[in-house]
Prior knowledge:
Blueprint: E1 2-7, H1 8-14, E2 22-27, E3 42-44, H2 51-60, E4 66-68, H3 80-83, E5 88-90, H4 97-112, H5 115-123, E6 141-145, H6 149-160, E7 164-169, E8 180-183, E9 196-199, H7 213-218, E10 224-227, H8 236-244, E11 250-253, E12 273-275, H9 286-302
Parallel strand pairs: 1-2, 1-3, 3-4, 4-5, 6-7, 6-9, 7-8, 9-10, 10-11, 11-12
Helix pairs in contact: 4-6
Amino acid sequence: xxxxxxxxELANEISPRxxxxxxxxxxxxxxxxxxxxxxxxxxLNGFKLxxxxxxxxxxxxxxxxxxxxxxxxVNHILxxxxxEHDIILTNGAGVHAIPISEFVxxxxxxxxxxxxxxxxxxxxxxxxxxxxxxxxxAKSTVLILGTGNIGQAIASxxxxxxxxxxxxxxxxxxxxxxxxxxxxxxxxxxxxxxDYLVVATPLTPETxxxxxxxxxxxxxxxxYLINVGRGAVVDESALTKAxxxxxxxxxxxxxxxxxxxxxxxxxWSLPNLFITPHTSAISPVxxxxxxxxxxxNLERYRTGQSLRNIVDKQAGY
Length: 317
């Protein structure tokens, strides 16, 4: 009999589909259990897992051998305490690709078709066609940093618009829907040609503040930055200068360094910055995808097969 720990927000989705020879306890977002977790060996954590909750779970269930997280990013899990344990970590890579890629396309079209200006004209009841020229996405150049499931889904949708799609990644292997792949920092030299820079990388020591002043100054003045990765990948001080001084044409951030972003943050008032509350992955079918991935991995775990989405804890993804 295998015991699992399930988060309260996903238990109703998963528990009816569990094999008969398993049992489970539930845990809430603060690490409180509805039963004894001491003999649990599998842990599916909930959304927005706090380090304090993670550490409470690890203390209550010292026999955990495998943890799956619904998030693609794992920087919030790889704490020193977690790394002291011999736990296989798998992530939710792939389950967010469709909604996030659609959201990125929404932000690109929002900027290209100047919907903010058109909405303002609508609100003021202004009918004037000559003052706006709305660029097409065809032949525009989009650089996607991070070519995992999300980056690949973004690329496939951009190709349908006829965009030129470049990708930045660690390994020099070709990928469908990318016209060019650049390794390491090769993409730096191409920034003056980029119309849209999309950040979809995990947060690691190598990617922290990856989008810095040098990168932002290298972009053309009309370029638009989109971040759907992690907030700390973008140097927000440099972005503040870039938007205030007009180095780039604008930015859309679905994630910021401090979340929730306080109402008094200066980011809210920056020109041409559109902030959304880390909502790009939310979809009516997200929980179903998370459950399906977890249950597939559970069957693999029980039958001794290799798990999907195993995280390299040293690399950070």
